[in-house]
Amino acid sequence: MRIDLHTHSNRSDGTESPSELIRSAAAAGLDVVALTDHDTTDGWHDAHLAAAEAGVTFVPGVEISTRLRGVGVHVLAYYVDPANPLLSVELERIRADRRDRLQRIVASLKSAGVAIRMDDVLKHAESADSVGRPHVADALVAMGHVRNRTEAFATWLAEGRAGYVAKYAPETSRAVRMIHAAGGVAVLAHPWGRVSRRVLDRGQIAALVVHGLDGLEVDHADHDDEHRRGLRAVAEDLGLVVTGSSDYHGTGKIDHPLGLNTTAPAQWERLSSLAILDDDQRVQGA
Ligand code: AMP
Ligand code: FE
Ligand code: FE
Ligand code: ZN
């Protein structure tokens, strides 16, 4: 059984529609796939229908942008009730700030001498419920300013660059509590990836366990072998579920094909058994 618990559609910064993504997952030989768009559950309905047709088990998820000591930390929430008032209002708040921030990014780029307008960016975000830097990157590529998303981040959009603008995000601990209150389970996405590594030492992870953290995404492209060994030891120590996934973004992120990393069936069973409702009940609330 092949299980991939972290993918993005064009409802956030992936390039395939939710149903296309599910069909790609089936073609890639996956049996279980989670859709985890940034800060939105908008793709669940279509993905769920497509999964039933393709004979794939769909896991409803969302990758929530959070903040710990001022550093961005991504939390994967699975099986949450999308209609939960606290969670849905918080996700809407994040998305609203993402929309405002797009204007601020465009203004910063203009000040830095880049000829770009809001319309240029919005053209690349037509299917997105959650907009972000990758859509600005796509505009910069289309306009010939850079060759690809990676170069757009390196030159203009990464922290410290002229087009970087921070976004609103709830505290990580509060997000974890909110996920539980909404009946779901919480897994730290790529905890030792480029950004969050700065704050997520063993002590901070242990502190999050007190708030209800359930798992760590250990097998992820951002982690080298040493990170994976270290994180696996932390997970074992703290009794956390270990996941592995691709963080697929369609053609929006190179070297992240579906099934690049997978989650062991026993770990997925443990994770889903910690959630309150089953998949079908969740999606019906969406
Ligand atoms: P945002 O949530 O708007 O701040 O944008 C963050 C997203 O941009 C991440 O989820 C990644 O998908 C993407 N991203 C971050 N850094 C890079 C990079 N160096 N190259 C390409 N995509 C990136
Ligand atoms: Fe992304
Ligand atoms: Fe992430
Ligand atoms: Zn992701």
Notes on the protein architecture:
Helix content is 42%, strand content 15%. By secondary structure, it is an alpha/beta fold. The chain has a seven-stranded mixed β-sheet with strand order 1-2-3-4-5-6-7. Strand 3 (57-68) and strand 4 (71-78) form a beta hairpin. The radius of gyration is 18 Å and the shape is globular. The structure holds adenosine monophosphate (AMP), fe (iii) ion (2 copies) and zinc ion (ZN). Zinc ion (ZN) is lined by residues 6, 8, 63, 247.
Write the layout of secondary structure elements.
Layout lengths: L2 E2 L13 H10 L4 E7 L5 H11 L2 E12 L2 E8 L6 H27 L6 H5 L10 H10 L6 H9 L14 H10 L3 E4 L13 H9 L4 E5 L5 H14 L2 E4 L20 H10 L4 H6 L2
Parallel strand pairs: 1-2, 2-3, 5-6, 6-7
Antiparallel strand pairs: 3-4, 4-5
Helix pairs in contact: 1-2, 5-6
One fe (iii) ion binds next to loops.
Bound molecules: adenosine monophosphate, fe (iii) ion, zinc ion
What strand order characterises the main sheet? 1-2-3-4-5-6-7
Low-pLDDT segments: none
Beta-strand content = 5-15%
How many strands in all?
7
Give the biggest sheet.
Answer: 7 strands, mixed
**Average pLDDT, all residues:** 96
Counting helices, strands and paired strands, the structural category is alpha/beta
Give the CA-CA distance, first to last residue. Answer: 27 Å
The outline comes out as globular
Helix content: 40-55%
The sequence of SSEs as H and E is EHEHEEHHHHHEHEHEHH
